[in-house]
Design goal:
It is a single chain. By secondary structure, the chain is α/β, with parallel strands linked by helices. The protein has two domains: about 140 residues, Aspartate Aminotransferase, domain 1 (Alpha-Beta Complex); about 260 residues, Type I PLP-dependent aspartate aminotransferase-like (Major domain) (Aspartate Aminotransferase, domain 2). The protein is built from 14 helices and 17 strands. The protein has a seven-stranded mixed sheet with strand order 4-10-9-8-7-5-6, with helices on both faces. The protein has a four-stranded antiparallel sheet with strand order 13-14-17-16, with helices on one face. Strand 13 and strand 14 form a beta hairpin. Helix 4 packs parallel to helix 5 and helix 11 runs parallel beside helix 14. The protein is globular and about 75 Å long. The structure holds pyridoxal-5'-phosphate. Pyridoxal-5'-phosphate (PLP) binds next to helix 4.
């Protein structure tokens, strides 16, 4: 498919509005992406025509809903190159996917004085579940340091590895800096000491081609809402042999084979980890989002977003008082920055008044901000529907704001 930006933009109704009398420039895509009409239609269609509970129905609607639901599982399998659809578990989001692994794999396989390795640039959702687990088990959390430009110091990671390392849980691409981590190398090294690896793919899956078999990660966690899909839906990929060894997450309907008051036997994967009625409508809607991405193709998306990022770096880079944060050479389309002498929150408010939506603050990475000696940053993050003229509006706004303080 050829890349027609106007056609792409026309598929996103929310983009075509004004805020404070100015055209909306939505640059908060690392927080959540907007949804194309096909996703909205798929959800509305489900509720209009197919609404039913799944997997246990003996009627036409239930069969249809089940089929559409399971079609998404297969689409996710293909999207990340998993070996089997059963290795795909639906959750509420990346956060719940990480918590699922901490509560099940963690409870069973991580014990006293074992070690979990994370990095300095983790999102809180890939820090706190491990802290909670380590506290409960008497295990230790080790943190890979980073350079000032926001890259993992690989040699320091190697030094942290030991036979006590049970899990390395690492962000694939940083939400605050955009850094793409060298995950393949890290996975190989972790496996050499017998540790499993979880990748937080919340920011990588929308930009990078992902093949979990090629990467050889044991788990991959991500959120549909950062992939042009609905909120309240996440994915946990796990290798079959690892998932099968793990105890269930929550107890309830669907995750059981047989229940008596004396003993319950559990269902097969993935159902063992999907207790209760799942988020059927959003799972079905997510397939439309994956089709949208696949039609454009990840390499095309990445190339276009790289161009936008490069253009933004160049445009904003020449502004007096502009301080980029996170300057790794390998990045997804995230531009974090500060304006000399200004609080990021004030910059964000001023940009908002110009119709430009960015994120400000610590971006749920407080330890990273502490490491960089910052209270926070302003973050502009680009998606496939953004344009160079939107970057121009951002740059113009930043230039005016910077001039106030940096005459
Ligand atoms: N990990 C990263 C890198 C993120 O950017 C986010 C969300 O911003 C999360 C985890 C948490 O995702 P969710 O809030 O969808 O569970």
């Amino acid at each position: 498919m050829s890349f027609d930006i106007e056609h792409i933009r026309s598929q996103f109704p929310v983009l075509h509005q004004e805020v404070y009398g100015k055209p909306l420039v939505y640059l908060d895509n690392a927080a959540t992406t907007q949804k194309p009409q096909v996703v909205l239609d798929a959800i509305a269609n489900y509720y209009t025509k197919d609404n039913s509970n799944i997997h246990r129905g003996a009627h036409a609607l239930a069969d249809r809903a089940t089929q559409y639901f399971e079609d998404t599982r297969k689409a996710v399998q293909q999207f990340i190159g998993a070996r089997e659809a059963e290795e795909i578990i639906f959750t509420k989001g990346t956060t719940e996917s990480v918590n699922l692994v901490a509560s099940t794999f963690g409870r069973k396989f991580i014990g006293k004085d074992d070690e979990v390795i994370i990095s300095t640039m983790e999102h809180h959702s890939n820090i706190v579940p491990w802290q909670m687990l380590c506290e409960e088990k008497g295990a230790h959390l080790k943190v890979i340091p980073i350079t000032d430009s926001g890259e993992i110091i690989y040699e320091e990671f190697e030094k942290l590895l030991s036979p006590r390392t049970k899990l390395v849980s690492l962000v694939h691409a940083s939400n605050s800096l955009g850094t793409i981590n060298p995950v393949k190398q890290i996975i190989q090294a972790a496996h050499s000491v017998g540790a499993k690896v979880l990748l937080d793919g919340a920011q990588s899956t929308s930009h990078l081609e992902i093949d979990v078999q090629e990467l050889d990660c044991d788990f991959l966690a991500f959120s549909a809402h950062k992939l042009y899909g609905p909120t309240g839906l996440g994915i946990l990929y796990g290798k079959r042999e690892v998932l099968e060894e793990m105890p269930p997450f929550q107890g309830g309907g669907e995750m059981i084979k047989e229940v008596t008051f004396e003993k319950t036997t559990y269902n097969e994967i993935p159902f063992k980890f999907e207790a209760g009625t799942p988020n059927i409508a959003d799972v079905i809607g997510f397939k439309a989002a994956l089709d949208f991405i696949q039609q454009l193709g990840k390499p095309t998306i990445k190339k276009y977003e790289d161009e936008l990022l490069h253009y933004a770096k160049t445009s904003l880079g020449s502004i007096k008082g502009f301080i980029p944060v996170g300057t790794a050479p390998e990045k997804v389309s995230v531009l974090s920055f500060n304006i000399d002498q200004m609080h990021p929150f004030d910059v964000g408010m001023m940009l908002d008044s110009k119709g430009v939506a960015v994120r400000t603050g610590h971006h749920c990475t407080q330890p990273l901000m502490k490491r960089l000696g910052l209270e926070g940053t302003v973050r502009a993050s680009f998606a496939v529907y953004n344009t160079k003229s939107e970057v121009d509006i951002l740059a113009e706004g930043v230039e005016k704001i910077a001039r106030i303080k940096n005459k």
